[in-house]
Structures
1.
Amino acid sequence: MIRRISYYLLSAVFVAGMSACGSNAHDGHDHADHEHAAHDHEHSEAEGHDHEAELVGKEAKGAHADEIILSAEKARAAGVKVEEVKSSTFHGVIHTSGKVMSASCDETTVVATISGRVQYKNHVSEGLKVASGTTLFSITSAGMQTAEGDPVQRARIDYERAERDYTRAKILIKDRIISEKDLAVAKAEYEAAKLTYNSMQRTRSAGGVVVTAPRSGYVKQCLVNGGDYVEAGQPLAIITQNKHLYLRAEIPERHFNELNKIRCAKFRTSYSKRLYDITEMGGRIKSYGRSAEVNNSYLPVIFEFNNTGDVVQGSYAEIYLITQDRPNVITLPLTALTEEQGIHFVYVQIDAEGYRKQEVTLGESDGERVEILTGVKQGDRVVTKGAVQVRLASAANAIPAHNHNH
C-alpha cells in the first residue's frame, strides 16, 4: 500500500514536471518566432526606404543630369511654344541709330504779312492741330513811332491816291493829253493798291492784322515770342501735316561699301517696344550720303515713309538696315533667348516634359530674329515662347532629401 501511494506521488510529480517543461518549450518557440518576424519587418522596411530613395533620385535627376522637368499641362498653362530649328534665307543687317524727322514736302512756313508787334491768338502752341484759315497771330504797329506808320492806314491812303490818279487819267486820255501807256500804268497802280488794301481790310481786327494758317496740320514750331517786333515776310511758325516722315540713319564709315546694298529698314523708337517696318509703311530709301559730314565720321541714309499716326517726329530710334539675303542661316526669334551675365541661352526640348539649357553664340539680328552661330543645329526643338517659365522650372530639380521618422 505504501509503495502504491509512493508510486502515485512520484507519477504526479513527474507529470507536473513534464507539463512545466512543455510550457517553457512552447514559450521559447514563440519568442524566437517573434524575433524572426521583427527582423523580417526591419529588412522589408529597409528595402522600402531604398526603393523610395531610388524614386526620388530619378525624379530629381530625370533622364539626364541637366534635364529640366516641366509637365505638358504646366507648359500649356505658361504659354510655352516650341519651334523646330531650320536653316533658311536671312538678310544681312547693319545695326545703328538715327532720328525720325518731318518730310519737307509736308511743312509750310507762316510769315508776317506786315511789320509790327506780334501777338499770339487762340492759345497757339507747338503740337496744336489747326485747320486752314485758323487765326494764329495778330500784328499791329499801333503806338509805335515808325517812319512807315500804320501799314493799314498807309495802304488805304495809297489806294485812294491810286484811285484818283486812275480816274483823272481816264479823263485826260479823252483829250489825248496822256498816252495809252500812261493810262495803263495808272490802272495797274490802282488795281495793285486796291488789292493790297482789301486784303488788309479782310485780315484786320481790333488787335491789328491777323495771320492765319495757310493749310491744315499741326504747329511744329513757333519761331517768335509774343510781343516781338517782326518785319514783313519774317517766319512766325512752321505747320506740318505729319503725313510723311523721314528716317535718318547714321552709318559708320566702315559700312560705306554696303550702302548700295541697303534695301529697307526696321526701327524701334525710344518710347515704344513696337518694331516698325519701312516697307509695310509704304516707305522707300530716298538717298544716302556720299561723304561724311564735317566733324562727323558717319554717313546719312534717308528713308521716306507714311506716318501711321503713332510715330513722333523728332524722336530717336534704334535702326536695323536690311541688306542682301544670305542662304542657309539658322535663326530663332529673340523671344527664345535668355541672358545670364552676358551669356545667352536657349532651352532645347528633349521629350514631352524634358528640356535642356543650352548656351548659344549670336550673329546678326533684325530686331525680330537673330542668327545662331553655335549651340543648336537643324532638327532641334527650341522653346520660342515662355523661355522664362522654363528657366523658373529648373528650380524644381532641387528636391529635398527623403526623411522618414519612426
2.
Amino acid sequence: MSRLWARQRRRRKPGDPDMYEEMVTDRRYAGYGVRELRITRMGSVQDRPQDDVEIAVAVGVLAGGSPVLSSQWNRAPLTLGRFEPARRVRLVEIGCADASHRVLFEGTPEEAHARCTSEVEAQLDRIVMGGSYRPGNDCARCKAVASCPAVPSVPDLLGISGPGAPRRSWSVATGRTYRRCPARAHLEGLFLPRDSASEDNEAAIRGKAVHAWIESRHRRTPHRPCTPDDVPGPPDAWQYAEWSVTGLQARLGIQMIADHALVCPLRDHPDDAEVHPERTVAAYDPGADVVVIAKTDLLYRAAGRWTLRETKTARVPDEGDLLDQHPQLALAVLLARTGALPGDGHCHVELERLTGSGPVVTPLDVTAPDVVSEARRIVAAYVQPWHADTRYPAKPGKACADCPFTRWCPDAAEGTGR
C-alpha cells in the first residue's frame, strides 16, 4: 500500500483534545477484504514483551481506519479517503535480525475493536495527554529540543564553533567508544541489535553489583541513610539483579557497600533530602548542534544544596588526575558551571571512591578557573574528533574482541564474526 491508514476519534470526556488521530505506518497490505500490518523490529521478536496498547491501537486503525490523502506532517486534521470495511485484520511482528515472526492479532473487525478495553483506553489517554519530560538519547531526534524546558540550551558547552554532521547525541561513553573504534560508536548510535559481547572481568562485575545495590538503597521511600549492616549476603557469594560475585570480589564488594554507609549523602540529612539515583541529564549545545547526555550516579539536594556525586570502585585508589581518569567528572563540572544541573549554576560535584582501604569523598571546585579549564580540555579531546568525523572508519583489531556489532561491520577482524 502506498498510503498510510488512520482514524479520527472525537473527545471522550472534558479536558481531552477535540480529536484523536491514530495512524499506522510500517508495512501495510490490503486485498480481498483483509488488512494486514507488519511491524518490523530491528532485533528478534523472540521473547519480546507484547505491548497491549500498541496492539489495541494498531488493530483498531486496521479495522476502522481510512487511507490518508494529506501529508502526515500537516498540522491541520488529516484528510482521509473513503472507508472500505475489512472482513478480517491481521497484525504481524517481524524481527529483521533473525527473520523471526509472530502473529500478534488475527480476527474480525469486531474482535479488533474489543481489544481496546477500558484499561487500554486509560493508558492511551495518559499517552495522548502527555506527562513529564524524559530527557535521553531520543532528544537528538526531537525537532523541539532547542526549546524544550527539560533540555537547557547551553551555548559553547562543548567548545565547538560550528555544526558537523546532522544533529547527534554525545556522552562520555560515546567518546570512549569512539576512541576505540569510530565505527562501533556509529553503530551504537543507530541502535542496531547487539550480539553477546565478551564477559566482564570479575572486578567489573563486582563494581556493577556494588553500584546496583547502593542505587537500590537510595531508591527506598521514605529516604533513609545507608547503614553498615545494610549489605547483601552471604559474604562469600551474593547476587543483586543480574550481577553475581563470589570469593574475594564478594567480600570486597560487601566491604565497599558497608564503607559507603560512612559517607552516604543521606547520613546527616535524611528528612529534607531530595534524591535522584541514576538520573539522566541532557543539555543542548546549539553551536555544535549536539545534545549532550550524562547519566549521573546520584543527584541529591540536602540542606538546600544540590550536589552531583559520581561513585567509583577500585581495589587500590589511584591518586592521579581525577578529571583525566574519570572524564564524566569533567563533563559534570561543565554542566554544573553552565547551569545545566539543578541549583541554578550552583550545583556541587564530588567523587566517591570505594576502595579496599576505605571510602574517600573528594569535592571538586566547579568555580575554580583551573578546574574548569582542565575539564574543557578533557571533554574537547573526546568530543572534537567525533564531531568532525562523518565517515566513522573501523579500527579492526583488539576493539573487535568484545564488539557486539561485528555482524554489521564488513571490516571486523577475522574470527570475531558471530
